[in-house]
Amino acid sequence: MIYLTKINRKQFVLNVDLIEIIEETPDTIITLTNGHKIVVIETLQDVINKVINYKRKIYIKDILKT
Tell me: the pLDDT tens digits for 21-46? Predict the structure, then answer.
């Protein structure tokens, strides 16, 4: 899960497994697998970087367990 900020400046946590599409038009719009759309202030690249960092943490924990 990653922390993001809606355009009203309220922070929330998003389950990255629910992301289907991320667009930058110029606002960053995240479309979830259930069809809901969320507009965030982070750039497309910021969201991608957060997802990558989160996934790395998860996979490193899994590797260390084995």
Answer: 999 999 999 999 999 999 999 999 99
In total, how many domains does the chain have?
Answer: 1
Tell the burial category of 50 from Cβ atoms under 10 Å away from its Cβ (0-12, 13-18, 19+).
middle
Which residue segment(s) compose the domain that 50 sits in? 2-65
CA distance 9 to 63: 36
List alpha helices for the chain, DSSP H: 44-65
pLDDT on residue 64: 74
Give the SS3 label for residue 23. strand
pLDDT score at 60 = 81
Let me know: does 14 contact 28? Beta carbons within 8 Å: no
